[in-house]
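I am still getting used to backbone structure tokens and would like to learn alongside you. To get us started, please write out a protein record for me. Once you have written the record down, we can walk along the chain together.
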Amino acid sequence: MKKLLLSSLTGAVLAMGSSAFAADLYAPAPVYKAPPPPPPAVSWTGCYVDGGVGYGMYNQDTFAETSPPTVPPLVPVGAPVTNGGRGWLGRLGGGCDYQFGAGGLGNFVIGAFADYDFMSLSGTFGDPAGPVTGGENERGAWYAGGRLGYLVTPSLLTYVDGGYTQTRFSSINLLTALAPPVPTGLGLASSTYDGWFIGGGTEYALNMSWIPIHGLFWRTEYRFAEYQSADVPIFIAVPPGGPFGIAEHVSPYVQTVTSGLVWRFNFGGPIATRY
């Protein structure tokens, strides 16, 4: 009886061990999911196109003066006055940047660019020496220059820029400054001004993995431009026309703030990996 009981217990133990071994042998292997791919590395070396919108303001310091054919040379005949205008603008441009390689300069980016502002900055021109007034509009400006940037992080660039600029102001039909305004038959021709600009801003790499387009950056910039003074003759608008013998000495300066997108098509420059 004891032998029979011992045999039964031994068989049960062996059966349980065989079942456990079989369960371990045929257990499905755990499934591991691959981690999501990291966002693409940021390279600031390459060329780009950009576009954006913004707001601008201009001021003009001006005073009346004699002009040929009456009394050469020019002689001031009125007190200085400041006119101005403001409005919206759109900007299109492009350029190329270079990010320095590893080492102490690895955080710096240099570049060259050019862009154009399509603008409608409207204001009122007035001169108490007349007294005359009239509507005026800054229609557009182009810029060409360089910039120097510093990478706060691999994705955030702060920069300063500067260079050469040229802008265009519309013609002006002068009215009497008294109420009600009456056409005077006089006007100022449209004028082009050359000058310089300086600015600064930030640019952020939109290299999130969920954005399907690689190479997008978000740029925001402030810019100040000062233009050389010009002597703009007042002309007689009524035929046969001709010079009136008075000019306006005009000194414009313009401020703009813009924000927009940059699409950068990199060509294998150094990658920002120092952080």
Observations:
- The chain has one domain: 46-66+77-238+254-266.
